[in-house]
Each structure stands twice: as C-alpha cells, then as structure tokens.
Write a structure and sequence with these properties.
The complex is a heterodimer. By secondary structure, chain A is mainly α. Helices cover 71% and strands 0% of the residues of chain A. Chain A has one domain. Chain A is built from eleven helices and no strands. In chain A, helix 3 packs across helix 7 and helix 7 runs parallel beside helix 11. By secondary structure, chain B is of the alpha/beta class. The chains are: A mainly alpha, B alpha/beta.
Chain lengths: 284, 283
C-alpha cells in the first residue's frame, strides 16, 4: 500500500462537513424534460458569456450597419430594384437582420471544434446528455446569440428610419424566425465541422458558402428579378424563407409566414439530425 | 485479487481500440475496486487516454468489454455517465465564464434541481477552496486553480467514479500537491473511487493505492507501488545485485517492464501538441 494520503489543509474531524449535497447524486430528469433542460443550460451559458464580454456584439454590428447605411441608402436613391412600393432600405433591412444572424450561426462549428480542442466538448459528452440534445442545445444557444445580434440590427434599422412594426406578437414571431434560422445554420456549420474536423478547413468552407447563401436568397432583391437557375437556388435556400418571414412580420408585406416557419422548422430538425450523427467523429 | 464483477468500479475485459492500423489499446484487462485510487501509468502514446475514453463512453466499444459499477458502457451509456465525474487532460474550464458559472453548467446538465443548484455549486466550490474566487472569470485563475475548478465541475453531480486524465500536467510542484490534497480530501469525505492517469511516477507512488503500468496498449505490471518496487528489488537481488544498493523506484519498475523503445513510441504529433498546449496554458 502507498503512503497515507497527505492530510488536506481543509480536512476536519468530519471530512463530509459542508459538502453533504455532494454525497447524494441528483435525481435524473426523465423523458421529454431532458431536452428543454439541456437547451436552457446551453442558452444560459451563451447569455452569461455575452454579459461578461460584449465586444463581439459591438464589432459584429458594424457590418450590418454599413450595409444599411451605405448600400441601403444608396440603392434607395437609385430605385433600381422593384420593392413593391416600399423604400429600398426598408426592403433590405429584414435581409440584413437575417444575414447578420446567419453570419454568427454559420461559424458556430468553429466554436465546437475549439471546444473539442479545449476538452469542453468531451466533458459535455460524458454527461447524461444524448448527442441530439447537446446539438439541439448548441443550436438554440446559437439562436439566442443571433437573436441578441438581431435586436441590435433592428435598433440600427429603426434609427435609420426603417418603418418596422412594434406589434409585440409579430416581434415574438421575428424572434422565433431568427432563432429557428440560426439553429439551422449553426447545425449546417456543426455538420461541416463533423466532416472536416479542423478549424482552418471549416473557415474556408464557411466563407465559401456564406456569400452564395446570402446572394442566392431574396435578402437584397426579389426572387422575380433573378435568372431561372438562381430562382431554383433561392427556393432551396432556407435564408430566403427566413427573410420572407421577417419581411412579412416586420414590414407587413405579402409573405408566406406559415410556409416559412414550416420550412425553417424542418430544416432545423434535419440539421440537428445531421450534426448529431457526426458529433461522434469530433469526439474521437 | 478476485472480486465479483458487480462490486468493481471499473472492469475491462480484453478491451481493444484501434485508430486505423494503430492498436491504441490492445487487449486491456483491468479491474478497479470501489473506493480505491487507481493510477494508470505510462508514457504518451501508451494507450492510457484511449482506455479512459472507452471507459467514459466517449469511444464506442462492443458490449461486454467495459463495465462501470456493473453497467455495460455499450448498452447502458446514460447510466454509466451519471456515475462519472471526468476531468480531461486539457484545461477544459470555460475561460469566458466565472468559476461559479462553470460549475453551475455541470449542475444543470446533471439535472440538479433549481431548488438545490446554488447550494450544491457552492459546496463543490468550497470542497476545492475556490469560494473566494467563485465570481471571478476563470481566465483570471492560475493553472492550479483551474484544475481545482474542473474538479468542482466533476464533483457537483456526486459521482461514484472520478476519472482524471493527467490532472497535474504542466503544474508546478506546489500546485500539483494542492490538486492531490483536494482529490484526497474529497475522496476521504465521499468514499468515491478515483481512476487517474499520469506519467509522473512519483505522484503515483505517493497517492495511488494501486497502479497499472501501461505500455503499447496493455497493462504490463499491476499492484501497489510498494509491491512493484519490492518485486523489482527482489529480482535484482536474485540476479546478483549487492544488498544495500539504492531502492528501486516506480520509474525503475516501468523501465524494466517497458524495456527499450520508449522514445520512438511516446505519442504522436497530436498527443505531444495537446500536452504542450495544456502545459503552456497552466504555466
């Protein structure tokens, strides 16, 4: 037998004194209650991080502000794009909100690779959390982070005079659309992370798909002005459905909100399935 | 030493795991008794971390190879995870959160109810002497404090088996002693089993009840540190070594068991990079 363990400085006559709860395992959550609990846990972490360091929030606001300020105001004067009678800056504002949310989510895979390298992912995978619940939690955490960013862009748009709705129910719908859209794009990113397994490769993929997703959507111009092949791309692009819903909810333009919600929910579910099935590759 | 498999904290039978053509773990038989501190020793690349990842359910293994308190890791993964507290080799606390938030995350993912979450988190932080630093961001912690924070994260769910992968890598001697003192204090208070990997033979000699010397994917020697050292001493005397010479150390035992070839097999590029990165972060 080895030497006796070194007596700890904190040891007392009763070593269990003051840590009674650490002797009793917590009661496991059963069935359906597990998933929302994990989603709340991951979202809480994201909000805590944002509370401690808002730098990213501010720096990421610069690009959408420039889009609205420069591109939006200039194209409003040119009147080259058919917007259905609303000022161009109003027309593009929902597109820029969706874009800024997507930019956050599309690089979420880099975070999961960083968490893999730091050991955080492995530690989470050793908790009683199914992989699908972990990915769902991460997807909605990306949604919450994107939502905070979207709020900043909405405020910038409002300051630039965009006529947005202030109907609380519609704003709630906007929040749901942003969260669902970001959940899909973050899962797309985590799926690619599960395939390429390295940050450098994922950066390349992220940049390669971000611009086609953005320009191949209705964020800046209506689908009707696109060539046929790009219209097909736009129809398969979840960002188009996100922008359509945001436009309908924020500006009151004609939109297919129910269809948009349906497509985004199915896309998010498929994304969660794909990313969960590849998560094991990251754990190896 | 024979025990009923159901009373073993960990039981591995012919555990094998390969990465491509490399057999990282190659027929590992291992039993860790409930309540003991068991040290899995070996150089980088010996297969320690792979074995730990199989035991923690991170790597998939066929049914029947690994049991934790009688639960098969292939068939009953969630039940196994609820019994584990795991501290990986890397510094895995989230630098962007406070110590308290880091521990609270693990309280949440282990289903600690909201009613007792704050108190349980506070007790875990108390157990590792981090109460005063609990509301500081983890990025302001020293290397030893981060290791203790990770210990608190693992303890908050009251695990029956604490698994520590190279817990003192890169720490200075005082911080290393501090980490071990807290591990021992918690073990004394809770009676939990501790499975630890290390390549610091002196630590294993001082703090582990039993050790398994691992080389090229298998256990090559098993016993208490004293048994292993005395065994080598006897073999040396039987081979004609003079009595009264220096007593063998665990490192001598390991050199005898592993023979030559330690240098060329001591971990691949990724192992070494991970080790250096961790050492750099704690230093």
């Amino acid at each position: 037998m080895s030497e006796a363990p070194v007596a700890p400085p904190t040891a007392s006559a009763d070593p269990a004194a003051g840590i009674a709860l650490l002797l009793r395992p917590p009661e496991p959550r059963a069935g359906w209650r597990l998933l929302p609990a994990r989603v709340v846990a991951m979202c809480a972490v994201e909000l805590q991080k944002l509370r401690h360091d808002r730098t990213e929030l501010y720096t990421r606001a610069v690009q959408p502000a420039l889009w609205l300020l420069i591109f939006g105001q200039t194209f409003t004067r040119i009147r080259a794009i058919p917007t259905g009678g609303i000022p161009y800056i109003d027309y593009m504002a929902p597109g820029i909100i969706a874009q800024s949310a997507m930019f956050i989510a599309i690089f979420y895979g880099i975070q999961i690779i960083w968490e893999r390298d730091a050991g955080i992912l492995n530690k989470l995978l050793v908790t009683p959390t199914p992989r699908s619940a972990l990915i769902t939690g991460k997807a909605f955490a990306a949604g919450i982070k994107s939502l905070v960013q979207a709020i900043v862009v909405v405020v910038i748009a409002a300051l630039l005079g965009v006529a947005l709705t202030w109907n609380p129910l519609k704003l709630l719908g906007v929040a749901a659309v942003v969260v669902l859209g970001s959940a899909f794009f973050s899962c797309l990113s985590m799926t690619i992370a599960g395939i390429v397994l390295s940050r450098d490769r994922l950066m390349g993929f992220g940049q390669a798909i971000t611009m086609p997703l953005f320009f191949g959507s209705n964020a800046l111009y209506p689908v009707s002005v696109m060539p046929g092949w790009l219209q097909a791309v736009s129809k398969a692009n979840p960002l188009s459905y996100e922008v359509d819903a945001l436009r309908g909810l924020l500006l009151g333009t004609h939109a297919h909100v129910a269809l948009d919600f349906g497509v985004l929910a199915v896309a998010a579910a498929l994304g969660i399935t794909a990313a969960s099935s590849l998560l094991g590759r990251l754990a190896r | 030493m024979t025990r009923d498999a159901n009373t073993q904290a960990v039981s591995c039978t012919g555990l094998a795991y390969s990465f491509g053509e490399t057999n990282a773990v190659d027929g590992l038989d291992l039993s860790v008794a409930e309540g003991e501190v068991f040290g899995l020793l070996g150089p980088n690349g010996a297969g320690k971390t792979t074995a730990i990842r199989c035991i923690t359910t991170l790597l998939p293994v066929p049914a029947g190879m690994v049991r934790v308190f009688g639960h098969d890791t292939a068939r009953d993964r969630m039940a196994v995870r609820r019994l584990l507290g795991y501290v990986p080799q890397q510094l895995s606390a989230d630098a962007g959160l406070t110590g308290r938030e880091n521990v609270a995350l693990f309280a949440r993912v282990f289903d600690v109810s909201r009613r007792e979450r704050d108190e349980r988190v506070a007790q875990a932080l108390t157990a590792v002497d981090l109460t005063d630093a609990a509301d500081r961001l983890a990025k302001t912690y020293s290397g030893g404090m981060i290791r203790r924070l990770e210990l608190a994260q693992a303890l908050v769910s009251a695990p029956r088996l604490l698994i520590l992968d190279e817990p003192t890598i890169g720490l200075d001697p005082i911080a290393r002693t501090g980490v071990w003192e807290h591990i021992n204090a918690v073990r004394a208070a809770t009676g939990m089993t501790v499975l630890v990997t290390t390549h610091y033979m002196d630590e294993a000699d001082q703090y582990c009840d039993r050790v398994g010397l691992m080389h090229r994917g298998r256990i090559r020697a098993l016993g208490t540190p004293a048994e292993l050292r005395e065994g080598l001493g006897e073999r040396r005397r039987a081979a004609g070594a003079a009595a009264g010479g220096p007593l063998p150390t665990l490192e001598d035992v390991f050199r005898e068991v592993a023979g030559s070839g330690l240098d060329d097999k001591s971990g691949d590029f990724r192992d070494v990079r991970s080790t250096r990165r961790t050492a750099n972060r704690v230093g």
